[in-house]
Specification:
By secondary structure, the protein is an alpha/beta fold. The protein has helices at residues 2-16, 22-36, 62-76, 113-123, 167-172, and strands at 51-57, 79-80, 83-91, 103-106, 126-129, 141-145, 149-154, 174-176. Strand 2 and strand 3 form a beta hairpin.
């Protein structure tokens, strides 16, 4: 009986995607656009004069990606400070060099995180991750709610040439690398 219940839970999780913490999703959707604005070279990443905030997701996580989209729209009302934005929802399997993105936010995936990291490096854009474990694969930032809110940054990917953050951000983050992740 226990094996049946466990097997059922595994299949339910597989069928309906990952389980996400709503509070963490809202915190990330609130803070990540502000962090993006701390890139001194954000003007170089505009596409048609606006920020393209691309959210990548597994097929089963479409509703979660859509909720993030709605939350960002409700809180930012079309503008990240002086920059207009467009949110682009893209399935991991559809992510390609033709995908338009000024920034990328990755939900969880078992197969595609390295693809997202390579995409961000090739484009020279900031890559945010829902899960801190994805920083090991090359994504740049993740936010964790511990006793307080902690912003983690992948130290190894800090010096991508097309990204240059203001010094105050670098004093606020906790750096991780392969040795302490």
């Amino acid at each position: 009986m226990k094996k049946t219940v466990l097997l059922f839970l595994v299949f339910v999780n597989f069928a309906y995607g990952y389980s996400y913490d709503d509070l963490l999703l809202r915190a990330q959707a609130s803070i990540f656009p502000k962090i993006l604005l701390l890139d001194k070279k954000i003007g170089d990443k505009l596409i048609d004069g606006r920020v393209i905030y691309t959210i990548v997701y597994e097929k089963n996580d479409y509703d979660t990606a859509l909720e993030i989209n709605k939350f960002i729209d409700a809180n930012y009302n079309g503008h990240f400070n002086g920059y207009t934005y467009k949110i682009n929802l893209v399935e991991f399997s559809d992510l390609s060099s033709a995908t338009r993105a000024s920034v990328i936010y990755s939900l969880n995936s078992d197969r595609y995180i390295e693809k997202v990291a390579d995409f961000a490096k090739d484009k020279g854009i900031v890559a945010f991750s829902y899960d801190i474990k994805n920083l090991k694969a090359g994504l740049l930032f993740s936010l964790v709610l511990e006793k307080s809110t902690v912003l983690y940054m992948n130290k190894e990917n800090l010096y991508i040439q097309k990204i240059d953050f203001v010094d105050s951000l670098l004093r606020m983050v906790k750096f991780i690398d392969k040795e302490n992740s």
